[in-house]
Design goal:
The complex is a heterodimer of chains A (246) and B (296). Chain A has 2 domains: 168 residues, P-loop containing nucleotide triphosphate hydrolases (Rossmann fold); 55 residues, no CATH class. Helices cover 39% and strands 25% of the residues of chain A. Chain A has a 6-stranded mixed sheet, with helices on both faces. Chain A has a 4-stranded antiparallel sheet with strand order 2-1-4-5, covered by helices on one side. Chain A is globular and about 45 Å long. Chain B is mainly alpha-helical. Helices cover 76% and strands 4% of the residues of chain B. The mean pLDDT of chain B is 93.
Chain lengths: 246, 296
């Protein structure tokens, strides 16, 4: 395991009520790279991100972020260490305007240039600044969710299924946006869409039933149909999605 | 005509008092999902803190000076805010996400604080001195209206305006509005929600304390149950207005205060409270989220 890892999980067990979701998850995320977390529905991908953030705290095991243990820390303290989070269902504040969503996300002392950068990346959001976020389309809400994580200079971005529920043309736009920020920060990406994962990912971690079953490079997963069929059950779907996005 | 004006202004003054109590309740529920049954006690303690300050500086049976009354307002606001902060930090913080426990603990705290008031100041009602100019009557279109009714309405309108500006233009206002929608996501943006909880509780307590002072001036006397009695109507205001909506609370308070007064005067003295309950039932059946409440 890399000692300069941005994130390291070791033997993490997490429960939701009586359900034992993460059953000893272990993996690392290397700095500056895009690590894709893959697995079937219900494998524990979202719970992994929530455990890292402390939203669904780990019951056992250890989570290190930027070299410091954060296993028992409050979510807001973990985020303030430099983590941007884009949740699975986007969770924009529908009653707030687009500008208010971004202003709320901007932590005190944040570089104002970040907001300018976000508006350059998503010009539509600047134009719709006074529009209620709840009235935006799914794709636009996804842009808001990503932009919220970008208004601060985060050292780790955790993005949960950015393509979920979006039309292929919107998925392509989101992919382009993520490609634009790739290299500027470390990214931990949960994604079921193999084409998108392959387009963005450097490294891959596959989880199954709450356990890590594969760690390696993304190219290896993209090329291994048997691996996909065994753990993702999405080999053909991924190929189809890949074709539809091209 | 003069009677209608008198009844209307009295109804609006009653509405203003309900609003001062209900606005804090509504904010607390909106952000924290806490049904705070101790809120009436903050109102009572605000009223008694103000009475205590006034009675120290005012001869028995006399009028309070304006300066002393202003100082009493500060004391009431501080008492309400301090009690609310203590309740939130000591009693509620360990119980977040345990709804039934929260209800029981705020109910218990409310009863204990009310009983403590009776232990310290006895059960009998205390005359509530106010400045001479507030106790005098003004003639408006032929109606002779006590000045304290108009002051109460003005204070409530001012509080409503300040609250709306606070919610719209300050960072904490933004946090409160966002937290009412999705508290967890607010945390995930790196915001200390517990601090926002304490602030909202303190603000709600301060408003209840402020309501206590003007409630004392409105009724001209206070007793340990003044908060508990008015809390029932404040809860009805919050439900009719929409949980978490300050504008909704203002609108509902006006509807309830006016309905009560019109029904009491034009129909029968006992009918006012009954009309309020009917209004509550109609809103719950036709529009369960309240007049201006968001879909939850």
């Amino acid at each position: 395991m890399s000692s300069d890892a941005v994130l390291r999980m070791e033997g993490v067990h997490t429960y939701i009520g009586e359900s034992h979701i993460l059953q000893g998850m272990s993996f690392t995320v290397a700095p500056g790279r895009v690590t894709v977390l893959l697995g079937r529905n219900g494998a524990g991908k979202t719970t992994t991100l929530r455990s890292i953030l402390g939203l669904t705290p780990a019951a056992r095991g250890r989570i290190d972020l930027f070299g410091a243990e954060v296993t028992r820390e409050q979510p807001y303290r973990i985020v303030r260490r430099g983590v941007g989070y884009v949740p699975e269902d986007r969770d924009v504040f529908g009653g707030l305007t687009v500008a208010e969503n971004l202003r709320l996300a901007q932590r005190p002392g944040a570089d104002p240039a970040r907001m300018a950068m976000v508006h350059t990346l998503f010009p539509d959001l600047k134009a719709r600044g006074n529009q209620r976020a709840g009235s935006l389309s799914g794709g636009q809400q996804q842009m808001v969710a990503i932009a919220r994580a970008l208004v601060n200079e985060n050292r780790l971005m955790m993005i949960d299924e950015p393509s979920k529920g979006l039309a292929p043309v919107v998925v392509a736009q989101v992919t382009e946006a993520l490609r634009a920020i790739k290299g500027t920060t470390t990214i931990l990406l949960v994604e079921q869409n193999l084409a998108m994962a392959a387009a963005l990912g450097d490294d891959a971690v596959i989880i199954d039933d709450g356990r890590t079953v594969f760690t390696g490079v993304m190219a290896e997963v993209a090329a291994d149909g048997a691996l996909q069929a065994r753990y993702l059950g999405a080999g053909r779907r991924g190929e189809e999605q890949g074709q539809s996005n091209e | 005509m003069s009677t209608l004006i008198f009844i209307t202004l009295t109804g609006l003054a009653l509405a203003a008092m309900y609003f001062l109590l209900a606005s804090g309740l509504s904010l607390i529920f909106g952000l924290m999902d806490v049904l705070n049954f101790a809120h009436g006690a903050f109102f009572t303690w605000g009223a008694y803190a103000a009475w205590w300050v006034i009675s120290m500086k005012t001869p028995v049976g006399g009028n309070a000076s304006t300066g002393v009354f202003l100082f009493a307002i500060v004391a009431a606001v501080v008492a309400g805010a301090a009690l609310a902060t203590g309740t939130e930090v000591v009693l509620l913080r360990p119980l977040y996400r345990r709804t039934i426990s929260q209800v029981l603990v705020t109910l218990g705290a409310g009863l204990a604080l009310t009983e403590l008031t009776a232990v310290i100041w006895k059960h009998d009602a205390k005359l509530f001195p106010q400045p001479r100019w507030m106790a005098t009557t003004l003639t408006i279109a032929g109606a002779r209206v006590p000045a304290n009714r108009l002051v109460l309405i003005a204070v409530a309108v001012l509080v409503l305006a300040v609250m709306l500006l606070f919610l719209r233009y300050t960072r904490y206002g933004l946090i409160v509005r966002a937290g009412a929608e999705n508290r967890e996501m607010v945390q995930a943006l790196g915001i200390d929600v517990n601090r926002a909880f304490t602030l909202v509780f303190a603000l709600g307590g301060a408003l209840a304390g402020l309501g206590g002072v003007f409630g004392g001036a409105y009724f001209k006397s206070i007793d340990p149950n003044i908060g508990t009695v008015n809390l029932i109507f404040a809860f009805i205001v919050v439900v009719i207005g929409g949980l978490g909506s300050i504008g909704g609370s203002a609108l509902a308070a006006a509807i309830i205060g006016l309905s009560q007064q019109y029904a009491n005067y034009y129909a029968a003295a006992w009918l006012g409270d009954f009309v309020v309950v009917i209004l509550l039932a109609v809103v719950l059946l036709v529009r369960p989220r309240g007049l201006l409440g968001a879909q939850r």
